[in-house]
Amino acid sequence: MFDEMDEVVQDYDERIRSARESAGLSQEDLAKELNEKASLIRKLEHGETLPSDDVQRKLEQKLGIDLSEGAAPDEDTDWEGGSATGEYTLGDVVERKD
User: Fold this and answer.
1) CATH 2.130.10.10 fits 2-63, yes or no
2) Which segments does the entry list as coiled coil (predicted)?
3) Residue 98 and residue 96: Cα distance in Å, rounded?
4) Which of 9, 13, 58, 95 has a 20 to 30 Å separation from 89 between CA atoms?
């Protein structure tokens, strides 16, 4: 169940604040448009709380941003390690530093 859920990016607070400011919105204006409290927007922008799935969707749609780790291109997405049986060994995932 949790494997399919995307994690929120680490810099979600900066992304929200930057996009809000670029849109010319105050925290109160954004809160009104999302039907949320201004205190929630403040807490999100200060990194004090993570957005719920619902609030995350609203922010992404309103501000045109992406707050999910899984949606960004990841350097491991095209990795094709593993044995012929489809199972991975420690050697598939460890990088040696000799």
Assistant:
1) no
2) none
3) 6
4) 9
3-state secondary structure of 61: helix
pTM of the prediction?
0.66
Q: Which residue has the tokens 């105050």?
A: 26
Q: Where are the domains of the chain?
A: 2-63
* Contact by Cβ (8 Å): 30, 20: yes
